[in-house]
Amino acid sequence: xxxTYCGKNCETCSxxxxxxxxxxKLGPGRDYGGDCSIAxxxxxxxxxxxxxxxxxxxxxxxxxxxxxxxxxxEKAESGQKLQENIRQRASILAPNLMILFWLFVPSVVSGxxxxxxxKTASPKLYLVGELIGITVSIIxxxxxxxxxxxxxxxxxxxxxxxxxxxxxxxxxxxxNSSTTPTWxxxxxxxxxxxxIVGTYHEFQSHSSVLRDVDYNLSDNWEKxxxxxxxxxxxxxxxxxxxIILPIIGLLLMAASAVVVIVASILRLIYLYRTANxxxxxxILNK
Length: 286
Fold this sequence. Notes:
Helix content: over 70%
């Protein structure tokens, strides 16, 4: 019989073949890399086995020694299922998240074409910029919906953002008007709300799919949402504060604009890191 720390007979273990276990002191009970708490306890207390320990009668691990092989098998099976789950998620998330990341490029082009100076100098170029921006938003929304099989909140995010983008489409046509028509404001406000709520579900989705892969990045997505929401609200209310308290309102607008830019940069960084994590997971689990 092979020598063991707990006194069991390895040759009668029903899980030995399943676990491909070489035996106690070469396997789970080995000094480096072993996961047996009983073996570790014996070494720390200077025992060669539990037989010489006066506390074994009240020792939980010792009393449960016969269930340890089954526990290790279940742990191994659980680990395999987790890796397979990650691989399946990664096959969907990795390519789609990278598309979301690269959509940043045309969105920047859209931003360059949609400022007030361009609208005044070249309404047609402004219209092209607006159409590029809305097209990017629609594609972004569709990509989010495509990832709903992994996390259902992606579907909510995509639908909300898609509805917001469609509403925004109807606000771009009064190009030659010197003032903004009231009806465009009535459309823009619900569109903004839809996009903000959609962004919340998007950030929560990113956080959720990362929870068992990278907890720190998962937590960062949740923190980023709070920053994004706070800065957006501050930017929205600052024009009203300017009417009452001009200096404070201007300072709030400037500060919130800076925070919005920082949040946008962090969002891009987190999106790339999230995509890269699942790309790496897909490669490692092939």
